[in-house]
Each structure stands twice: as C-alpha cells, then as structure tokens.
Design a protein that fits this description.
105 residues; alpha+beta; 4-stranded mixed β-sheet
Amino acid sequence: MAPTTRPPLPAPHKVVTYPIAGEDDSGALFLYGDPSSPRIAILCAGYCDDHEAFQSFASRLSKEAACLAGVTCLPGYDDREDRPYLANKEAGYSFDEMAGSMREA
C-alpha cells in the first residue's frame, strides 16, 4: 500500500495568545474568518490532540457559515514554534486550570 500524504493545514488568519495558570502567552487561539462576523464558533481539541485536529474544519466552517472560528486545545497539549510542548508544566494542569484556560480563550 502506498503511503498517503495529507494536505497542508490552513494557516490561521491570526493567533491570539492567552495566559494559562498565570503563565503568560502559554495558550493560543487560532482564528479563521471575519472578526466582524456576528457568529462565533470556538473549537477545542480534546485529550490528547492539539490545534491540528480542528484547523481544516475551522477554516472551512468560517467560509461556509460566514463566522469567526477559533481553535484552541487543552492546556499542555499544544506544540507551537513559539512555545514548544516541553514548556508546559511537567505535572500537568488541574481541572480548574483547564477550565480557566477555556475562559481566557
């Protein structure tokens, strides 16, 4: 069987960072679509996925539903060039810290 290749992920129009558990810029919200749209959708990848799980869907949703779509993930599971995975708390995040991160996003 020949290996399959996945199309490249659509780049977000903007990335907005937010604090998690007092750590500035540790979370990231990838934004797709028109910021002036009256409709907003926030997508959060579940355990153990990062932003990649919803990037293609958010890009398509923002176009087809004429909305602003934001993609985030649970604290500790994103791996970005500006903040690698190993920068997260080694012991992980509590439920309250996870809930707080969604509020910040």
